[in-house]
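Last lecture ended with a question: if I hand you only a sequence, what can you say about the shape of the protein? Today we answer it with a concrete record. The protein is Elongation factor-like 1. Below, first the input exactly as provided, then the predicted structure, then a couple of comments.
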Amino acid sequence: MPSIPEAELIRLQANQAHVRNICILAHVDHGKTTLSDSLLASNGIISSKLAGKVRFLDSRADEQERGITMESSAISLYFKIRRRVAAASIAAAAAKATDAAENAAEKTVPSGTVMDQSNDTASSGAGTPTDANTTSATNSGTSTPAESVAEEYLINLIDSPGHVDFSGEVSTASRLCDGALVLVDAVEGVCTQTHTVLRQAWKESVRPVLVINKIDRLITELQFTPLEAYIHLNKILEQVNAVMGTFFSENVLEEDYRKKAEKKKDQEGKKEEGTTGLEDTFSDWHVETQDDSHIYFHPSQGNVIFASAIDGWAFRVDQFAAIYAQKLGMKEGVLRKCLWGDFYLDPKTKRVIGYKGLKGRALKPLAIHLVLDNVWKVYDVVVVNPDKDMTEKVVKSLNLKVLPRDMRSKDTRAVLTTIFSQWLPLSTCVLLAVVEQLPSPAAAQKIRMPKMLHPFETTPPEPTEDWEKGMINCDSSSGVVAYVSKMVSVPLDVLPKNKRKTLSAEEMRQRGRVQREQLVAAAKSAELGEVGVHLDVDEVVANRLQKEAEERAAAEELEGKEALIGFSRIYSGTVRVGQKLKVLGPKYDPANPTQHCSEVTVDSLFMIMGRDLIGLDSVPAGNVFGIGGLEGHVLKYGTLWSAEWEGGQNLVGKGLETAPIVRVALEPEDPSQMAQLVRGLQLLNQADPSVQVLTQETGEHVILTSGEVHLQRCMADLRERFARIEISMSEPIVPFRETAVDAPAQIVTSSAMAVNEAQGRDQGEKLIAKSETGARGTIVATTPNRHVRFVVRTVPIPEELKKYLLDHAEQIQAYVEDNGGNAANSGKGTSGVAVLTEQVEAGEKAKAQKKLLEELTPLFAKAGEEWKGREKDILAFGPRRVGPNLLINHLGYDFSRNSNRSGADEGAATTGADGITVQDMAESIQTGFQIATNGGPLCGEPMLGMAFFLQEIEILENSQEAGIEGGRSKMAVSSGQVITSMRDACRLGFLEWSPRLMLAMYSCDIQTTVIARRKGKILHEEMKEGTPFFSIQALLPVVESFGFSDDIRKRTSGAASPQLIFSHFEVLDMDPFWVPNTVEELEDLGEKADRENVAKRYMDVVRKRKGLFVEQKIVEHAEKQRTLRKN
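The predicted structure:
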């Protein structure tokens, strides 16, 4: 097919009803890019023979090398179909009403599709779909000839990665699209990323179409019969529908919970009024039933495609229904519903019967008899048992026109692809399903926009604002609202303004004709001796060479330079080049319209065509496009808003990407190139939605990535594109957590570690020491200047309460940031006030505070007597004010800075009422707590699950000797010393318990046998029925995962690849200070301790990296002295 002109694609952008925005989602290696190649071949972008081999949308070298997609790529496709409509219906529609034409409309058939020649391989001469349509019209009493009406569509396609390391790219793709093609491997079935992409599509209200790909593997590899394949495909459908059912159930239960909560409030009000009815009692007995039929996949609904992308074929059951409806004398709609399921063809009556009508007869289901048998027959005669004579008969029975040279090919796969590309072309089937099943932007935004604008509303309110109406109606004449999902870095020489204009053949011929005429005219003038300006051939050649040299110099100047363009979707209005827009950042809040908001001028607009860009003057609502001029205004994603409208709405939503867990420190090999590294890191941070770039307190430049493959891609981008320098990379830095358990501690080693942590302080052990009379973990601390003394007790948080703090981290963070952040900004001194009892404004904050207190109260009561009621005394969460560690006020009085001076707590025991008070130390106590929990005593990693009870604090008498002014002047010194003393007290109290390291764990989904040797833990294993695959689900420490994928591929000859997703932190049940000291341990292990202390090894590695003291012997357990022989 010839390439589609750019003007045609640009013209179709204005017709919203004929635009489709879709993405391809799937697990890794399930065939997304191969399917994309076949769709691109239908537009003449690549050769149909190279479809599945060239991987056109994988434009990176490492993508081609690894065979996986790492970045989302977009391209716009043209699709034309012809709707066959009776001529009489067209005339009636013109004379009467539009509905009459729609009722008379017949089957939709794509232009040039081979369905017109499709036939049963078992019998020849069956009617084509065109004949079927005509016959159907005749049977219904209409004998008028059918006419075709051409319709053109623009398909904006986004190919997304399937590897778990690039889940962030899936989020960006799904937010821009209205529909999705979800691919599932027919052999491997539903995998981990299949769950993830289906959940992302559900969350974004993206309508999916299921594509069961690689069906050829069932025939050639597993050698299934059609019946076995039919059963296997049904199981895959059940698995996918089960996943969709869980999403629907979650929504129903959440909605039902909200309704019950509202009814409960109403009932409480009715009880007060004494009007409670009996119907209110019965309403809690059941969940309201809702119709969920629309969310499931079934071939009869047309939302399931069976395909083999590598062989270039695909079909839906309605294609075969159109063929067999005439033969069986059935209506096409009825046959479509019977063509998949427990329906059979009675050979005697030629009627379709159900399962009950079998009466013991062994009949094949219609799906096998009419569909799968035909596909299996083609594979059998072409690939499995090659037979040229039978192949020619099959081609003839299908009415296909295959060239003799193609039939003589010795490559059976090439012959197979040639046959199927004419019989069941993949591109036609898929694009037709996209047009019929997936909504246009105008239809989709009516469903998606209310949920996006009001995510927490069960029933979104009616739109009132102009911008809201424009978004819901996809109004091109309204103000501009667009969403930038990510920033894409492209070479400057790819931009349309910098590319050499490619001349067409006609333009080149015209240029040559003009130059020849000039040369002939100059020659004639020279012969005749005419006076005038003569054209010198040498001068013409020199000018041309000079022009080419200038072009080469300009190209060399652009080489290696990158530009950032925004990958965007416009929901309302029409954006134009030169237009001024507001950019709303991810943290934009309509309550503060001037913050996180800037104004930009649109520099350029692009239609993204894979590796190329097409320049545009304007883009109407409903389209996906690229936009230039956002560099410096949009970091990763943002919202574009019409400058004429006041305020704005933040459209940035949270995706499902995995948290970046692997970090490395970077530095240039040549220190003079540090500026280039910094600039490269800035570009990487903008161009990659999943990476995080940090500058640590030590000055190190650190990047955080989702996994090993993601890290390798980021390093390749830095070295080859963004920084273009040699970069040295540290060993991967994996986070740990520090916690403690109630077990006997290694006292000697703990004391040694405590001394080491307090080194440099002459009287450290005297000032901060274990309480002789207090419970375990109680520490008495005095500041070095002897002005402040306090007692703090460290206790491990009970498991249930710790789990709550971890599971509700986002809820706690939102509350603390809203409350504490605003208080800090307003200048109110809130240090020492209990977090959950501080007075807040009525409204959402008050509701959040009440909800947290209600949920924490039973957990604290269950933890024991010393915890009961202490949820109201939480002074701070840590680290960073939101972590799973608690600082609890156990003083018995208010610890807030203003409490004593305001007379709120007259019983507050403060020593110097006119000088330094204990309330003045509140902020220092909290700061010391935050520092201690941010870096524990083992290896400076954050603590997890520790509570610190502040039991006593007093200002010693000698701090007041200098009087009021002198006492207050010492406050600054005392505050700093309280911070360090509190930090050391928390750490020493931590070591009084039995410390443990917590490892970051990957959940690993793989088919292999190499888990245990890397300290992994098998969770679940099963044999996938009907396949040779043995599926294993396991947990693997992140610190042991580097090189794991390569190890797996080597041991399985490349047949398996693990999917590693960060799961949680897990306690390594081994004391890092353990040494054999009992008689039994010495007898079993000896003095050498042959069993390695893994926790100590991890701890020492981290301490050494951070520059902390490591107690390490150069020679350990020496048995023999080595003596050198003297000369």
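Comments.
1. The chain is about 40% helix and 20% strand.
2. The CA atoms of residues 236 and 264 lie 42 Å apart.
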